[in-house]
Amino acid sequence: MSYFDGINARTRHMKNILGILGISFFSATLGGLMVTKLDQQEPSAPTVTPVVHSSLSPGTMHRPTPMLASATHTEGLPHFRDAAHRALDAVVHVRTAQSVSPSQGWSTWYGFFQQPSAPERVQMGSGSGVIIDREGFIVTNHHVIEGADVVEVGLNDNRTLPAQIVGADPTTDIAVLKVDADQLNAVDWGDSDAVQVGDWVLAVGNPFDLTSTVTAGIVSAKARDIQLLRPDFDRSLFPIESFIQTDAAVNPGNSGGALVDTQGQLIGINTAIASRTGSYAGYAFAVPSNLARKVATDLIEFGAVQRAYLGVGIRPVDEMLAERLALPRVAGVLVTNVFDESGAELAGIEPGDVILSVGGTSTSTMPQLLERVNRYRPGQVTEVELWREGDTVLLTVELGTREGTSTGVKPETPDDTATLDNGPTDDVATIWGCRLRSCSEGKSGVEVIDPGLGPFAKAGIRAGTVILTVDGKTTDGVDEFAAALSNSAKGNAPGILLEGRDPDGKPAWFGVAID
User: Fold this and answer.
1) One of 192, 242, 255, 342 is an active-site residue; which one?
2) Count of CB atoms within 10 A of residue 405's CB?
3) What are 152-175's pLDDT values in tens digits?
4) Active site includes 173?
5) What is this structure's pTM?
6) Annotated catalytic residue within 89, 169, 173, 427
7) 255 is known as an active-site residue
8) End-to-end CA distance of the chain, in Å?
9) Which residue among the candidates 89, 93, 126, 143 is catalytic per the annotation?
10) What domains appear along the chain, each with residue ranges and CATH number?
11) For the segment 305-334, what is each residue's pLDDT rounded down to a tens digit?
12) Residue 253 in contact with residue 126, Cβ under 8 Å?
């Protein structure tokens, strides 16, 4: 290459560089002008669009994110924010403590023999509860507080209060607590009968001790009987299971918490999950609010559930039975027998009848029928619709008790005397939630059959305890005991001193608080 050829090559290279620099400068200038122009214009509102995953795996449903629904008020989607805030203020964190004796015998973990001299340990537990009254009444599950020596609740405003057990019903897994506070945020009761499959719901509670947690889902089914609760054959008490099933995430610690609708109204008490791992697997169950409300009201007013009985033996209706009875559909509950002197017999219900509804509400299955009847108290009247010989019949029935009477348990207050049970003898009484009986002839005092969950249990009195005196006054039999207790309760003392023998026969003294 000649000298001039090199000069020409360098000249062409310089021209290329200058061209590139010129284009870059022009682009930068134009960009600056465009930015200046845009800054002078009014900003436009952003568009928010719900994002739904487009691919659906088999058996999986993807729903719009609840937080997005509540933030945008998108047409057709629920608004969760207000309902969540209402429920959060009314849901409490229930904490329990229980003294547990050490296990004796072979350990299932290590295979060694544990000596009985090991000290007692304290077992802690936790769950949820729902404030139903501004004066401090709280509904939770029976299994949350069962066996607890100490119960306290944590409020959503970070206060912690001691709680007393008002009463509990294992057949519905409902219990009521009371805290000494007022002007609390209480939830409004909803109508669980009006809830339909597919309705949106929120579960509020304290899963895994994560306080004030809200999850969303839909009602998956109603009137579920999952064989969760166990019968008490000794007292002839049988479980009432007619759960609302939901796919809102519920985990250990949610028990006793609130299931609310999109208005923030209480439609159920979260009770159980169906899971192979112990954690949420898509199936959660709640006691319907209409049943929970009735049980809670009974426990508050009477200290015991007022159990109404129709007085019939029943079995479900299957396809073959429906065809034989010419039923228009496979629904209802067949009456297999009618008990003597029961409300059913007096109203004219007969074996072979099929119960279609109670009180105007359909009872297509046995769980629905049991749940519906248990909303009533003995002595109340309701209409029962039957299928009989190809036609419907409407009868008016006065519900009674298992013993055949039409009245339930009398309310128990410190000023009440003993309320006699319908037991085989008149020397058995229920006083302040404690069942007692007179000692055998020739012996003074009363024996505790069941201390219940009231002031007797809180004083440490156990079944088998014999009480000899009330504030130093000897009592012979339940009548004298009830009168002495009532007289002592009318005084200004905060408690009553009971003297007697514990179940081991050792002298014992108990201070029973007057509520």
Assistant:
1) 255
2) 12
3) 999 998 899 999 999 999 889 999
4) yes
5) 0.60
6) 173
7) yes
8) 115
9) 143
10) 70-103+116-305 (2.40.10.120), 312-398 (2.30.42.10), 419-513 (2.30.42.10)
11) 888 889 998 888 989 889 989 999 999 999
12) yes
